[in-house]
């Protein structure tokens, strides 16, 4: 059995292992269960077969365990788990890693033969390029599998324990647990369903779409402000297909404020903070579709006088393995942060982010800046080198956006919380 975390506040993952998997796969998945337990997660391993009786038993086990996340291994077992867990609102992560066969079970016709099954894992973990190709080949109606929800983890070398690979999966699952804690998975699913919802509502005169990051892979400590590249393109195309006119934000504002004669409804697109992915991922989609857009940049970050905004520094420090513990120790030096964690200090640091961010937002601007200076001195040099830490546009990147026709404006100098600033700071 996997080592269990006794803390009742610890997040819970049900790891469902298909009974037909090889001995080597069972061994690897057992190591994954132990790695999750060591990270502060309560893990229950469930061995699952096929058929109605096995499905009934699994439903009862999941109900008793009250898992926050269900990880299922083996293509056949994943479909069974989806049928049980998704109606109960439990997100399912399909683990085809390391050697699982990917086949088109989820696209199988239902009994009526009228349409394919829509059951798909919320995220998929794979180990090979062939598995990725098989997943991307699946189709739900006209929409392909969202590539941003497929996560490839390198296969282990040699015969020893795949420590690095297991830690990569643990990191991903902790991110998804944090996503659940911030209730952003449901938000993401709602965003992905925009094309279905729009036909049901009355068209407003104007829509303003505000984005932050648009990513080719959905990763990060705060997925509430992240959208996948596939979903992003689907949203823009859905608006164009429904007759919305694309306008720049400034042009849309002038039109709506002018009280001009009623025209076809419009939409505008903007991006906050000035991430590099705005240039590399979002801009090519918008340019190909003829959609103007506006980018609001944090000017001190663009100029290089500030490496990361305070919120990014805090989030990424807590999310990174090996840096989270020293980062949490620095942040807890302030009494307000320490008090917010008093009852939850046994959770993995990655899952303490909501409490830490709430406490940080309550600090004065000076206290928050001093604490972030200490945090940067402790982990900043290593943090900035870590893969996955967002990159921000520099002046050359902003000029490229302008050459593409983007409007560029300021998103404050340092992304401070304006209510916490003194009058003289605001004037400056």
> What is the highest CATH level, the class of the largest domain?
Alpha Beta
Average predicted confidence as pLDDT: 81
Distance between the terminal alpha carbons, to the nearest Å? 60 Å
Fraction in beta strands: 5-15%
**What number of structural domains do the residues give?**
3
Percent helix, as a range, is 40-55%
- Topology-level CATH name of the largest domain: Rossmann fold
What order do the helices and strands come in, and which of them pair?
Blueprint: E1 12-18, H1 23-38, E2 42-48, H2 52-65, E3 69-73, H3 75-85, E4 92-95, E5 123-126, H4 129-137, E6 139-140, E7 143-144, E8 150-152, H5 163-181, H6 184-192, H7 194-197, E9 206-211, E10 213-215, E11 226-228, H8 229-241, E12 245-246, H9 249-258, E13 266-273, H10 276-289, E14 294-297, H11 299-303, H12 310-319, H13 324-331, H14 335-340, H15 353-362, H16 365-383, H17 395-403, E15 407-410, H18 423-427
Parallel strand pairs: 1-2, 1-3, 3-4, 4-5, 5-8, 9-13, 10-11, 12-13, 13-14, 14-15
Antiparallel strand pairs: 6-7
Helix pairs in contact: 1-5, 2-3, 8-10, 12-13, 12-16, 13-16
């Amino acid at each position: 059995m996997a080592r269990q975390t006794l803390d009742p506040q610890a997040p819970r993952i049900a790891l469902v292992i298909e009974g037909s998997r090889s001995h080597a796969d069972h061994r690897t998945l057992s190591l994954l269960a132990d790695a999750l337990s060591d990270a502060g997660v309560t893990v229950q391993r469930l061995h699952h077969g096929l058929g109605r009786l096995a499905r009934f038993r699994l439903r009862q086990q999941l109900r008793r365990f009250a898992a926050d996340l269900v990880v299922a291994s083996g293509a056949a077992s994943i479909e069974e788990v989806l049928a049980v867990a998704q109606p109960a609102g439990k997100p399912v992560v399909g683990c085809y890693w390391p050697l699982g066969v990917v086949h088109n079970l989820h696209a199988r016709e239902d009994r009526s033969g009228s349409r394919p099954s829509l059951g798909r894992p919320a995220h998929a973990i794979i180990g090979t390029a062939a598995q990725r190709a098989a997943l991307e080949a699946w189709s739900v109606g006209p929409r392909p599998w969202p590539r941003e929800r497929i996560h490839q983890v390198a296969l282990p070398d040699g015969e020893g324990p795949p420590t690095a690979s297991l830690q990569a999966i643990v990191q991903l699952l902790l991110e998804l647990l944090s996503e659940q804690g911030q209730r952003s998975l449901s938000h993401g699913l709602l965003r992905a369903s925009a094309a279905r919802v729009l036909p049901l509502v009355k068209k407003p005169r104007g829509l303003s779409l505000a984005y932050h990051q648009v990513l080719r892979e959905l990763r990060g400590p705060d997925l509430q402000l992240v959208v996948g590249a596939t979903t992003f393109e689907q949203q823009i195309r859905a608006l164009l297909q429904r007759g919305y006119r694309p306008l720049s934000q400034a042009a849309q504002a002038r039109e709506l404020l002018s009280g001009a004669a009623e025209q076809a409804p419009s939409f505008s697109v903007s991006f906050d903070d000035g991430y590099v992915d705005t240039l590399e991922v979002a801009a090519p989609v918008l340019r190909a579709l003829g959609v103007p857009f506006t980018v609001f940049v944090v000017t001190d970050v663009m100029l290089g006088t500030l490496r990361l905004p305070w919120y990014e520094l805090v989030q990424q420090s807590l999310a990174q393995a090996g840096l989270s513990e020293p980062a949490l120790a620095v942040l807890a030096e302030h009494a307000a942060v320490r008090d917010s964690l008093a009852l939850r200090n046994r959770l993995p640091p990655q899952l303490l982010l909501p409490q830490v961010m709430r406490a940080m937002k309550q600090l004065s601007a000076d206290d928050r800046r001093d604490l972030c200076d200490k945090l940067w001195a402790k982990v900043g040099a290593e943090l900035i080198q870590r893969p996955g830490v967002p990159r921000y546009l520099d002046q050359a990147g902003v000029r490229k956006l302008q050459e593409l026709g983007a409007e560029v404006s300021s998103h404050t100098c340092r992304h401070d919380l304006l209510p916490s600033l003194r009058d003289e700071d605001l004037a400056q």
